[in-house]
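[Q] Does anyone have a clean structure-token version of this?
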Amino acid sequence: MFSSTPVALPYDGTLPTGFFQVALPSDAPAPNEALLAAVFAEEAERYDIWFYTDFSQVRLVGLFPKEGGEAHFGFWETSPDAPTNAQAFAALEAEARRRGCPALVGPLDFNTFQRYRLRVGAAPSWGRFDREPTNPAYYPDLLANLGFQPHLTFESRLIRPETVPAVYADKQHLLAALAALPFEFLPLTADTWPQYETELFDLVQTIFGANPAYRPVSGAQFRALYNATYAAGLCPHTSVLLRDRESGQLAALSLCQPNYAPLGLPADQQPNFQRDYPRLAAPTLLAKTVGVHPSFRNRGLMNALGAYGMVHFREWYEQVIFCLMRTDNFSLHFTDGLPAETAHYALYRKEL
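[A] Here you go.
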């Protein structure tokens, strides 16, 4: 079964034995194959799926939407062996051309709820935060040599302790305006998450549904990733939903958590704020998922979410990372003009 030349295997309802053990970088999280099997089974309803691997140097999944359109690649891990990697991509590209796909886009593990994007450039000082794209530095070069170009770009910005006073001075007017907003602030915790889960699922789909590369997911796939156990890792002092007082509709969300990476938690252990926060020597807040319902945009709610996070920030944290913001997204403006360390990421595209 092992060979030096990549083979192409169609998805037949099971995952190829050994596929997800191929060429894992040392800092990548090990995949949970039981969860992956359920995701593949669900996504096979809308994708034709092909696996490309030599079971040694490279693994790659081709995702071909059954309704047509651009093809995606995902679950990509490779050694620096450029020729073997190029062979796998050549087989993927040939299949995409045969199907009339106009482009290849990735890495994207089915949808933006799963892993996607590459980190571009040197690793930042913080190493890796939860669900941050990480990859060996040679990955972007491999794609560039195969004719891929950055399609969407993203940033994470670290605001260090010495800059925090300037943030408060700059945003004082936002803090002063919080109480007058016609919205109810609903803290998100493991206890309150089940209460809002159904509404929250709908809110997430609505907020992010128009984003490039977004694909809606089922409630089951959403709950497998985002549930009460996940919520137990959120910061209860900065994570919040906004509800419009007049209509009762959820209008915005902000999901934040400490950076638990310095604790080196086992891969199969979910972080828990109550258990793990006290063990952090110099807590860093991660502003992870922030968005506003389309019906409530242009009303200052993105700034309101940032201000809400600032209310208790200095009591609990030393610095903050604004995570994985698209470079053309309004959320970037909250930290514009402030000194920051920035990490860069990209989703790639190749026209066929």
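[Q] Thanks! Anything notable?
[A] Residues 159-344 form a domain with the Aminopeptidase fold (CATH 3.40.630.30).
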